[in-house]
Amino acid sequence: MMSRLAKVLKNLIRSCLAITPVATAFLSTVAFANILPEQRKQDLQLQANLPFFVATSRFGEIAIELPASMSRATNAVVSSSQLAVSAFRPVFLPSAADAKEAPITATEYWKRLASSPAVQPRSMPPVRGEVLGSVTLAISSAPLTQRWRTAVAERADSYFGSSCNAERVVCASKLRGQLFDAVAIAQRQDEQEAVRSINSAVNARLKYRTDLDTYGVPDYWAAASEILQRGTGDCKGYAILKMWMLLAAGFDPSQIRLQLVKIPATGQDHAILVVNTTAGQLVLDNIKSDVRNDYDVKDYVPLLSFVEQSTQIHGVKRNSRS
Q1: How far is CA 197 from CA 107, 179, 194, in A?
Q2: Which fold has domain 116-315?
């Protein structure tokens, strides 16, 4: 009887040992399946505190759930209550392993970034006499010179600083609040990254509207304060707003050119911004999502441009005869 009982117990132990790895694997799989969505949800909840133009997760471009208020304030492809952010360069929160310290929330991460005293130093490449395949010639004035000088006299870069008083209407505007974070981050990026961040932010947040629809006249040079308060602007408005944001991010006025062009395909006049950097002259355009180098822009004919207090006309350099 004892030998039979011992045999039964021996077989039972063998069965348990055979089942254990399978059960362990099964339970581990169930646990992982339960933990992973929760971990992803927690990660995305942290990311929800990021500025709209860098909203993403460490898992890449995936559909994420955000509150309805944030969905409206994010440039994204929306499907029901979910959205996927894909138009901007991802910015990842540092993990505890990378930082060798306890994890921090997204809010704390950006608070530390904003409190950093150093602004990325900017180079000041010499002003170029050629742009968009043309040569420039400075003139004393043109019909639009005074409008340009009135625009730059506003010193609107102060609107994107922490000293902007919330009691002022422009400082309390929704658009100014949305673009403030873009400038804060651009201050700590290199030239090319800063240009792309600001170009993307303005293109995403400012709504296009013609001067005729907004002001009742065909051509109106709106001040930055008007653009920020209304939340709308034409091509000049986009360019001028980007100019002030770049200045607030540490660029020098001599690097920035407001460029008026003709679009041969449509016959329309258009305004863009050209920024002179160590990587070349970069073109910021409200009808193009990407930042292009000026030698890649073949669809515009330059007409007139403004750099600081200088008014410049454009011409084509003749090929020298051999």
Answers
A1: 20, 10, 5
A2: C8orf32 fold (3.10.620)
Full-model pTM: 0.63
Which stretches does DSSP call E strand in 128-224? 130-131, 134-139, 207-208
Q: Quick: pLDDT tens for 269-282.
A: 999 999 999 989 99
Tokens linked to 181 = 């974070």
What are the pLDDT digits (tens) for 102-145? 555 555 544 544 454 456 667 777 677 899 999 999 999 899 99
Helices (runs of H) and strands (runs of E) counted in the chain: 10, 13
Residues 253/306, Cβ–Cβ less than 8 Å? no
Spatial distance between the Cα atoms of 208 and 238, rounded to a whole number of angstroms: 8
User: 161, 249 in Cβ contact below 8 A?
Assistant: no
Q: Which amino acid is at 287?
A: I
Helix/strand/coil for 306: strand
Report the run of H or E that residue 309 belongs to, with start and end.
none
Q: Is 25 helix (H, G, I), strand (E, B) or coil?
A: helix
CB-CB contact of 227 with 237 (8 Å): yes
Q: What is the distance between the alpha carbons of residues 188 and 130, in angstroms, rounded to a whole number?
A: 29
